TrEMBL record:
GO molecular function, one term: 5-hydroxymethyl-dUMP N-hydrolase activity
Species name: Candidatus Gottesmanbacteria bacterium RIFCSPHIGHO2_02_FULL_39_14
InterPro entries in the record: 2'-dNMP_N-hydrolase
Gene3D superfamilies, per database record: 3.40.50.450
Biological processes annotated in GO: deoxyribonucleoside monophosphate catabolic process
Taxonomic superkingdom: Bacteria
Coiled-coil ranges from the UniProt annotation: none
Protein name (Swiss-Prot/TrEMBL): 2'-deoxynucleoside 5'-phosphate N-hydrolase 1
């Protein structure tokens, strides 16, 4: 699978290790990752580009996004350019995984209702599971994505269980449902 990865070039100063971790996990899942434009570029290089170069880059950007199977955006450090790339990916009907490691999700995307756009807070511990779940979703291995509202008390509990067990909240909830199904119907998974 081909993945378009984007993140803030300015944010590399603070989050490069996270960017590289995301890329490494994607590559370990046999994904071809388009990421050099983020990893190898610098803020000063981008500022010095001529208009013709920026227009040429934009055409290349569209080719990368349209040729990819999905997009992963690391959004911890705010970036208008990354927001634009997310919008492009959405316009091209690409599944998008929006990741952030600190603070709150991007405000316009936090409660977006497109099932192809998934916004997740990550840590180094739960990142592999989040990416694995998303790749399975893109491949169609997951039957359904199910979203529901919970109280802040339940959310707090799930966050603690997730951190302690070093697994995504969705995996924890899925295991609970599977265990209950086994008890009630003797169904094996």
């Amino acid at each position: 699978m081909k993945v378009y990865f984007t993140a803030s070039i300015v944010g590399k100063k603070y989050h490069l290790a996270n960017y590289l971790k995301i890329i490494d996990i994607l590559k370990s899942k046999n994904c071809q990752v388009i990421s050099d434009h983020i990893i190898k570029s610098t803020e000063s290089e981008v500022k010095l580009e001529k208009k013709e170069d920026r227009l040429k880059f934009h055409k290349q950007l569209e080719k990368w996004i349209t040729s990819s199977d999905f997009t992963v955006a690391e959004t911890t450090f705010p970036s208008i350019s990354v927001g634009y790339e997310i919008s492009l990916a959405e316009a091209f009907l690409k599944p998008i995984l929006i990741l952030f490691s600190e603070g709150n999700p991007p405000s316009l995307l936090a409660h977006h209702r497109d099932e192809k756009l998934i916004c997740e807070k990550y840590s180094r511990e739960n990142l592999p599971g989040l990416i694995d779940d998303f790749i399975n979703y893109v491949r169609g291995n997951n039957d359904t994505r199910f979203t529901f509202f919970i109280t802040s008390k339940i959310a707090s509990f799930l966050e603690k269980v997730s951190r302690k067990g070093k697994l995504p909240k969705s995996v924890y909830l899925r295991k609970l449902v599977e265990e209950d199904m086994k008890k009630k119907n003797n169904i094996d998974f």
